[in-house]
Amino acid sequence: MLEKISLAIKRIEELSRSKRIRVISHFDTDGITSAAIFSRALKRWGKEFSLQIVKNLESEFINKLNDEEILIFLDLASGSLEHLRSKKTEVFIFDHHEIAQEIPQNVMMINPLLDSDERISSAAICYLFAKKLSNENMDLANLAVIGMVGDLLEKDIGKYFSDVLNDAETVVKKGLLIYPSTRPLNKALEYSFNPYIPNVSGRREGVIELLRDAGIAADNGKYRALYELNEEEMTKLITAMMLRSPDKSNFEEMIGNIFLVKFFNKLEDARELSALVNACSRMDSPETALGFCLGNKTFKEDAEKIYIDYKQSLLSALEYVSGTEKIEGRDYIIINSKDKIKDTIIGTVASIISHSPLYPAGLVVVALGYNEDKIKVSARIVGKKGRNVREILSRAVVSIGGEVGGHPNAAGCLISKEKEEEFISELRKVLDVEVVRV
Ligand SMILES: [Mn+2]
Q1: Which of 170, 203, 292, 340 holds its CA 20 to 30 A away from the CA of 401?
Q2: What is the DSSP code (8-state) at residue 204?
């Protein structure tokens, strides 16, 4: 991949003498951090470019792109090769998603899946590109760490990732994955909704009791932060939490590496930064997220405000869900929020519900939210085992049309709003039939 990156640099250098550069990136944390790294690197390289952040890559969008420009895609496009084949310009893709079709002549693909077993985020790929351009860009390594965490690729530390961690001077510590790990422990636990901890999340007395059981005391009324605990204290805290957890199988996911990176000259939890960047994008302010990543102080203030709003709208969405009438089957629930929950947070809402202790393992959760003339559908499974929700959605859209993406336990699709009733009825048919067969 590193050789491919060198080739790409050479080719972009040649082409950019006569053509402008257009960069297109994805709107999640990995896409935003990729865009931040790439645009800063291009600027330092002295290149002129324009940048666009998109929720997804649709064929109409690709068709409208100007053939007079060099097209560079970050964190997307590996699945859209057929549509890029007809572009009369050169295309560069820096991405880590599955390559769906044959790579066309006019496309240069920089994707670790082509020659490595190590799974890294697009932000990490963009960082390797930036570092190849100049060592001056090593100050962008912290953004690559945030991108890795954003895409949940931080569990295995392979060769590329360990280089990124070194360059970023990241502090890595094993422990409980409650974030921000830099905040006083009692607050971090009380405000933790993702993950949700029964009897602790939102319950001050529950938090104090837990900390007492773990033998962690406050100093002058102030608790230390999670990352400040020593190994023994961390172990005790994990044990105390495990004793309270109804479902031990999910507990493994709550233990792992905590990553602390320097940001705005402070040591911050990469998970918290990732959540903040993600929140801004989902609240329709990807440019704020980008400005924040690029170290702009004004954007930082805005981003923090949006993050608070985001958490508030998640809470309202969850309240709406608990109060509204749901379509319930034997082992599924369908929540049709119409315009009450934003399409950009409907997936997060479905995820939180699927991790809630209120629902039985194996339950299928499907949530719908309007997105202009379309409907965003998100499906999750409670717990780890159950039916394949990607397959369920695929079967429900056969007669309606719509592309399904995702995994067996977390999938989504976009359908046309006119098909709302038809989709729900098809979906119920698929879900009910499956029950009979089981
Ligand atoms: Mn990604």
Answers
A1: 340
A2: H
In this predicted model, what pLDDT tens digit does every residue of 185-210 receive, in sequence order? 999 998 887 777 777 888 899 999 99
Does CATH place domain 325-437 in 3.10.310.40?
yes
Q: What is the CA radius of gyration of the chain?
A: 23
Q: Is residue 408 within a helix (H) or strand (E), and if so which, with residue range?
A: none
Residue 338 CA, ligand 1 centroid: distance in Å? 28
Joined together, the tokens standing for residue 317 give 């969405």
Band of pLDDT at residue 23, cut at 50, 70 and 90:
very high
How many angstroms does the Cα of residue 151 sit away from the middle of ligand 1?
6
Show Cβ contacts of residue 162 under 8 Å, excluding neighbours closer than 6 positions: none
- d(CA 309, ligand 1 centre) in Å: 25
Strand bridging mode 20-26 / 91-94: unpaired
Residue 290 in 3-state DSSP? Answer: helix
pLDDT tens, residue by residue, 422-435: 999 999 999 988 55
Any idea how long the chain is?
A: 438
Helix (H) or strand (E) holding 379: strand 374-381
Q: Which of 148, 172, 113 is nearest to 28 (CA)?
A: 148
CATH top-level class of 2-138 = alpha beta
Question: Measured in angstroms, how far is the CA atom of residue 337 from the centroid of ligand 1?
Answer: 28
